[in-house]
């Protein structure tokens, strides 16, 4: 492990106006760790940070990278100097004495706040560091992508992850809210054993929150709520409570592939796919459309195979399609489940991540459920609040016997009392939610989605029209050497070789090869860098001998071609061994 000794000088501009204040940082950073310098107050538009001394103690052959991690790329010295490449190797080698001044732009002050900035240094074991998260103005908008516009995207040479569905757009808002006094007040009982179903006060806040934001037909009862450490835990416990080993559940494909392992872990149950295709069958249909007829067909196939189907899982908004189920279709699916005595598990984890004017209908908002005792709702903080690391989710069910059984397993999946307190403060602050967080989050999601969709279009990659979620479902079929899942994984590996991680359709059990999910809820610079790497890789890929030049455009989303058998060339379930290293969230 490398030892980093860093001495910095921080001063207002011009440097001669006052004596610099010094800050020493002596740490043993881990790979990828960010070392933060404290915020310095200034009335100037820029804060200048000069690194006066920097020395490393490294193991032979180890590489150390240093770069600014700020709202815009640092001005680098002569590219011929060792510091420009940021690489030190060998037993010990100090950097040159003439280290450049880093210009760190400040965002405009928010109302009632002073201007401030924070300098960060990113230390990593190999490659070069990422350009920092794009700063945003107080109105919530992104600035122009300076790193891309200035041609400095090459500063980031690590793997760019647009495969993990995390919302990284609003941490500044969350960070500010966490600094308020109500977050710091913790009562003693929060540090003691509590109800494994969730603290009463937290469940009351959740009930009021979901009643309002899901537009529930009736006020939710806190007694029907169980709090667990993530939706994965909810899937795992419901699978063993609702089903016996070997039972099946209907689920439209493509879908979030992580459900398979979660339902198998405890319950030992298996998915029964309802295959969806991009072809439009008539003027009123759309690509990957779910219908009750498709549910019926899948259920009858399962019966012929001797699989007892016990449940129907629906993800709304959909992952990975970004589609939103119309209210009428949702009612038809619930009626279908009621006819066959199936439980319905509604995963609405992206419920508030809807970024256009499409009307989202929560199952909680339906006035008369066909079978309320078999309808179970789940939601969590991971996506809508950008808190995937918090690990808190909610199960709402009116079935007392099922909840009683779930609560027995919840002891293994409970959430810390202090975490429940902090989240209660978020839910209680309706002024902040309604006037700051949710409108800003929606605006930033839409802006980021537009940038990615427009960039993909420029490269010749159409996407499925979407209204919710943190991603787009993109059509790369024309870049496949053949219309097979082997060719899809080959293309995925080429992306990874070019240090771009996106998720292939096979990971979502899609029945058509060539579709990929790309997450857009990240900084503008990273989105533009993704487009840049895609364009470079696809250009070189198209130039290779044997590359598939099958036509594909925006129209291909409406009229995709199948093979002569009118079936996909292979099904995603035939061989999942190649997917063992593809983790999708």
Give the SSE layout.
Elements: E1 3-11, E2 21-27, E3 34-36, E4 40-41, E5 46-57, H1 82-85, E6 101-105, E7 116-117, E8 120-122, H2 146-149, E9 160-161, H3 171-178, H4 200-213, E10 225-228, H5 231-242, E11 248-253, H6 258-267, E12 270-275, H7 292-304, E13 309-315, H8 327-339, E14 343-347, E15 375-380, E16 393-397, H9 400-410, H10 417-428, H11 430-459, E17 471-475, H12 485-497, E18 500-501, E19 503-504, E20 515-519, H13 524-543
Parallel strand pairs: 9-18, 11-12, 11-13, 13-14, 14-15
Antiparallel strand pairs: 1-2, 1-5, 3-8, 4-7, 5-6, 10-16, 15-16, 17-20, 19-20
Helix pairs in contact: 4-10, 5-6, 5-9, 11-13
Concise structural overview:
This protein is of the alpha/beta class and 585 residues long. It contains 13 helices and 20 strands.
Tag the structure with descriptive keywords:
single chain, 585 residues, alpha/beta, Aspartate Aminotransferase, domain 2, Aspartate Aminotransferase, domain 1, 3 domains, 7-stranded mixed sheet, 4-stranded antiparallel sheet, 20 strands, 17% strand, globular, disordered N terminus
- Give the name of the CATH architecture of the largest domain: 3-Layer(aba) Sandwich
- CATH class assignment of the largest domain: Alpha Beta
CATH topology of the largest domain: Aspartate Aminotransferase, domain 2
Dominant shape: globular
Structure summary, number of beta strands:
20
The CATH superfamily label of the largest domain reads Type I PLP-dependent aspartate aminotransferase-like (Major domain)
Distance between the termini: 30 Å
| Overall helicity | 25-40%
Total count of helical runs of at least 4 residues: 13
Strand order of the largest sheet: 10-16-15-14-13-11-12
Average pLDDT for all residues = 76
Biggest sheet features: 7 strands, mixed
Radius of gyration, in Å, reads 26 Å
Q: In percent, how much strand structure appears in the residues?
A: 15-25%
Q: Indicate the low-confidence ranges by residue numbers.
A: 1-155, 549-571, 573-581
What is the count of structural domains? 3
